[in-house]
Amino acid sequence: NAGVMQNPRHLVRRRGQEARLRCSPMKGHSHVYWYRQLPEEGLKFMVYLQKENIIDESGMPKERFSAEFPKEGPSILRIQQVVRGDSAAYFCASSQGQSQPQHFGDGTRLSIL
Amino acid sequence: DQQVKQNSPSLSVQEGRISILNCDYTNSMFDYFLWYKKYPAEGPTFLISISSIKDKNEDGRFTVFLNKSAKHLSLHIVPSQPGDSAVYFCAAMTLNTGANSKLTFGKGITLSVRP
Fold first, then answer.
1. CA-to-CA distance for B35 and B33, rounded, in angstroms?
2. Residues pairing with A20 in the sheet
3. Please, how many CA atoms are within 13 Å of residue A96, restricted to the half-sphere of its CB?
4. For B44, which of A28, B3, B38, B103 could close a Cys bridge (C-beta 3.0–4.6 Å)?
5. Nearest Cα residue to B8 out of B91, B92, B87, B98
6. DSSP B31-56
7. Residues of A with CB under 8 A from a CB of B
8. Which phi-psi region, left, alpha or beta, contains residue B63 (left: φ > 0; alpha: ψ -120 to 50)?
9. Is B81 helix (H, G, I), strand (E, B) or coil?
């Protein structure tokens, strides 16, 4: 499968723990985007990264959330000290360039106990 | 503030007939529009897109129409098939400002195609 790979597919955490979500973009894609979907809502943009650079993080909560896309390895979305309101589906997308369609992974469903 | 609106939460059509899914937007800076299809427990799948310099784009059974003056676009699926049953998201972005290519999504519309 040469598509966008996200893992884990499901993640359960207790309040106060850390959650790490991983995303490997499609081969040849250097642009990565993270979106969050709450129940009955559309996807909401969080952050846009290129290799080793955060281009736009205007959708990221100011605290507890961070993202990276290192030179080697997958992009990571990290949520520290999770709270119940962080429960959502987190989708990663990648594209070849800014004007190219974004292709999505199957998401990580995060549940907070 | 919902910049991309899909006002009908659901649509049901008979197999073989046309499905018309509507989308409105409020941000006049949007210049590139996309439709995605989503099955439960999967990620959105890109279907078709249109640039603001066009008013129509066609790909097989899928056609997207853009009316810039009305800030309205629609996705036509003809003929509709049971496998088309899914949630359809309209999304928009601004290309002409350069750096920012984030997508703004509507809430989606659930299409059911009856056999």
1. 7
2. A78
3. 4
4. B38
5. B87
6. -EEEEEEE-TTS--EEEEEEETT-SE
7. 4, 6, 31, 33, 35, 40-45, 48, 55-56, 58-59, 91, 93, 95, 98-99, 101-107
8. beta
9. coil
- pLDDT of B96 over the 80 cut: no
Query: What is the 8-class DSSP label of residue B28?
Result: T
Q: What is the pLDDT of residues A30-89, one digit of tens each?
A: 999 999 999 888 899 999 999 889 999 999 998 999 999 998 899 999 999 999 999 999
Query: Which tokens go with A92?
Result: 């990663």
Cα–Cα distances in Å, from A28 out to A89, A94, A103?
A: 25, 10, 12
* Closest CB to A48 among B44, B49, B102: B102
